[in-house]
């Protein structure tokens, strides 16, 4: 996913495969098919598909008009 954070509450559900989320100094957590996850809000993290099959994830953003769902880390954003 690249390093990012969420400006609104964000929920995910792993449909297939697995995703490992790197929370930097807070460690890593692996989520498998059939598991739900409350995404880290306002905390930098990166999701990586480190499984053997493509991962499919449903994501729901609980935002509002003008709110940023995904904020990418500035030093990693390219033009």
UniProtKB/TrEMBL annotation:
<protein>
    <submittedName>
        <fullName>Cupin domain-containing protein</fullName>
    </submittedName>
</protein>
<dbReference type="InterPro" id="IPR011051">
    <property type="entry name" value="RmlC_Cupin_sf"/>
</dbReference>
<feature type="domain" description="Cupin type-2">
    <location>
        <begin position="2"/>
        <end position="61"/>
    </location>
</feature>
<dbReference type="InterPro" id="IPR014710">
    <property type="entry name" value="RmlC-like_jellyroll"/>
</dbReference>
<dbReference type="Pfam" id="PF07883">
    <property type="entry name" value="Cupin_2"/>
</dbReference>
<dbReference type="InterPro" id="IPR013096">
    <property type="entry name" value="Cupin_2"/>
</dbReference>
């Amino acid at each position: 996913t690249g390093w990012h954070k969420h400006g609104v509450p964000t929920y995910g559900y792993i449909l297939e495969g697995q995703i490992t989320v790197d929370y930097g100094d807070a460690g890593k957590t692996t989520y498998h098919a059939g598991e739900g996850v409350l995404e880290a809000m306002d905390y930098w993290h990166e999701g990586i598909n480190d499984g053997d099959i493509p991962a499919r994830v449903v994501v729901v953003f609980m935002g509002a008009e003008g709110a940023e769902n995904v904020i990418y880390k500035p030093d990693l954003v390219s033009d």
